[in-house]
């Protein structure tokens, strides 16, 4: 059993596991402390300084890096804490393109959450806005857009690429006010080592990394990715009967929310206008549309001509997991062969 630590946040007694950071323990108990660069999947970074709290007898400290200790008394709001937090937030926002209404992450942005919690004054921001970034937008990747004008240098994309993917396609480049997240040599992301998995896009707290398809789903359907045998849990974001987004299911033991490029972005075939929606039968040398009954009757009438290893099945990632199960059952149990493959293996 994990050791339990007792401490207090704003006068309320809290229990947490040994090793938990103050921020993690607070969020677990529904106590909001503003934060931007912290992410539960990643090692603490301590870059944004927004999660500042006061520890009685010890002074100010960032809560995302400091582990809880028995008897600590934490204060999340005090004039000093608020002052430091406000300065940190203002400096972040001051070098950020504030065009929220046009941003694909509007209303789903952590910087907006922080700004409205702290209450940033517009007039003060205008005075602070000395550095206006005007960096070209990188839309070289087929699936997502990088707009570094909206980047807050939280480093979540860099740590995701390094810690979770072990790819390391991006890193901080330059120093001081010119710091940017860049690929080696500052090349477009498509020319880098990026594998297009979109894990950084899924974790970006602002609008610096957004999917090209910016439509927002109105509901989600839980299912399993059909592309390979790992069985990643996915949430299909649906809008008007179409899939407009896919995200990993964090509760799935197979992938714990992570996805590859195919699972996350390879869903356009579902609604593609070129997709065959009725069977084709070759008649007089040309394919003609037929009903499913006609196609099934034709195939069934010919199947009896083959048995065992004369027969092979090639299944598809573009049918459901359940349909693929039936395909393998039919191949093995009815046709008596293990000659069975699937396009995802190639
Ligand atoms: Fe703690 Fe950024 S969340 S420093």
Q: Class of the domain at 4-126 in CATH?
A: Alpha Beta
What radius of gyration results from the CA coordinates? 26 Å
Overall 3D geometry?
A: elongated
- Please bin the fraction of helical residues: 10-25%
Stretches where pLDDT falls below 50 for ≥5 residues?
A: none
Structure ligands: FE2/S2 (inorganic) cluster
**How would you characterize the largest beta sheet?**
5 strands, mixed
CATH topology of the domain at 4-126: Ubiquitin-like (UB roll)
Spatially, the strands of the biggest sheet line up as 2-1-5-3-4
The helix/strand class is alpha+beta
CATH architecture classification of the domain at 4-126: Roll
Distance between the termini: 45 Å
Count of helical regions? 9
The H/E string reads EEHEEEHHHEHEEHEEEEHEEHEHE
Give the integer mean of the pLDDT values: 92
Question: What are the main properties of this structure?
Answer:
5-stranded mixed sheet; Alpha-Beta Plaits; binds FE2/S2 (inorganic) cluster; 3-stranded antiparallel sheet; Ubiquitin-like (UB roll); 346 residues; alpha+beta; 9 helices
Please provide a written account of the structure.
The chain has 346 residues and is an alpha+beta fold. Among the domains are: 4-126, Ubiquitin-like (UB roll), CATH 3.10.20; 143-213, Alpha-Beta Plaits (2-Layer Sandwich), CATH 3.30.70.20; 306-346, no CATH class. It is built from nine helices and 16 strands. It has helices spanning 22-28, 79-94, 110-118, 122-128, 156-164, 199-203, 261-265, 292-303, 321-334; strands at residues 4-9, 12-17, 52-55, 59-62, 73-75, 144-146, 170-173, 180-183, 209-211, 219-224, 233-239, 242-248, 280-283, 286-289, 313-315, 340-342. The strands form six sheets. A five-stranded mixed β-sheet has the order 2-1-5-3-4, sandwiched between helices. Helix 2 (79-94) packs across helix 3 (110-118) and helix 2 (79-94) crosses helix 4 (122-128). The site of FE2/S2 (inorganic) cluster has 12 residues, from loops.
């Amino acid at each position: 059993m994990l050791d339990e630590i007792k401490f207090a946040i704003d006068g309320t007694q809290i229990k947490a596991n040994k090793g938990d950071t103050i921020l993690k323990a607070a969020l677990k108990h529904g106590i909001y402390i503003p934060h931007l660069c912290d992410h539960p999947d990643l090692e603490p970074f301590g870059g944004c300084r927004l999660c500042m709290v006061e520890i009685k007898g010890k002074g100010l400290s960032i809560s995302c890096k400091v582990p809880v200790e028995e008897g600590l008394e934490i204060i999340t709001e005090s004039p000093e804490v608020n002052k430091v937090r406000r300065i940190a937030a203002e400096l972040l926002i001051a070098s950020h393109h504030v065009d929220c209404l046009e941003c694909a992450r509007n209303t789903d942005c952590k910087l907006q959450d922080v700004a409205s919690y702290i209450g940033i004054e517009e007039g003060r921001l205008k005075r602070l806005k000395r550095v206006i970034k005007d960096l070209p937008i990188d839309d070289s990747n087929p699936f997502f857009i990088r707009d570094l004008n909206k980047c807050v240098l939280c480093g979540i994309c860099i740590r995701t690429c390094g810690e979770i993917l072990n790819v390391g396609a991006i890193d901080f480049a330059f120093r001081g006010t010119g710091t940017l997240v860049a690929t080696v040599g500052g090349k477009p992301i498509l020319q880098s080592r990026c594998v297009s998995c979109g894990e950084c896009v899924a974790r970006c707290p602002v609008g610096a990394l957004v999917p090209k398809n910016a439509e927002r789903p109105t509901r989600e359907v839980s299912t399993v990715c059909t592309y390979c045998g790992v069985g990643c849990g996915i949430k299909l974001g649906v809008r008007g009967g179409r899939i407009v987004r896919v995200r990993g299911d964090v509760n799935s033991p197979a992938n714990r929310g992570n996805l590859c490029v195919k699972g996350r972005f390879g869903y356009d075939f579902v609604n593609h206008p070129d997709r065959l929606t009725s069977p084709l039968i070759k008649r007089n040398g040309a394919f003609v549309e037929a009903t499913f009954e006609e196609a099934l009757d034709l195939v069934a009438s010919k199947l009896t001509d083959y048995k065992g290893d004369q027969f092979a099945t090639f299944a598809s990632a573009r049918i459901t997991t359940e349909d693929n199960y039936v395909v393998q059952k039919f191949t093995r149990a009815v046709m008596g062969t293990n000659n069975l493959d699937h396009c995802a293996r190639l």
